[in-house]
Amino acid sequence: FLILRNIVAPMRQRYLWLFAYMGRFTLETYIFQFHIWMKTTGVNGSPKHLMLLIPSWVPGCFWVNLMVTTSVYIVVSIRMFHLTTAFRDILIPDGLSAIVRRWASAAAALALC
Fold this sequence. Notes:
This protein is mainly α and 113 residues long. It is 68% helix and 6% strand. The mean pLDDT is 83.
């Protein structure tokens, strides 16, 4: 499929929206998989189990827990992406002169504290 898709030019212009959308959040999902999705219990802090939010006496608790934890994991990853983007825009504006002015004013404010 990949070879055929890359050989034919019109097919290179098509993509799956879900994969493109989730691809924007790969850094956040990579970081949060160890903090939200998995429980660290192994040697040297290696994760061995899925985080348990639903008690084990609930029928079908593994699948319910998997859905709840995955939903929280994806929502937090997307939210963190938006926060990271907002902080980036605040701290690193467009244009070199704007960056110098912003960081000079931040340094002056810290010097006064």
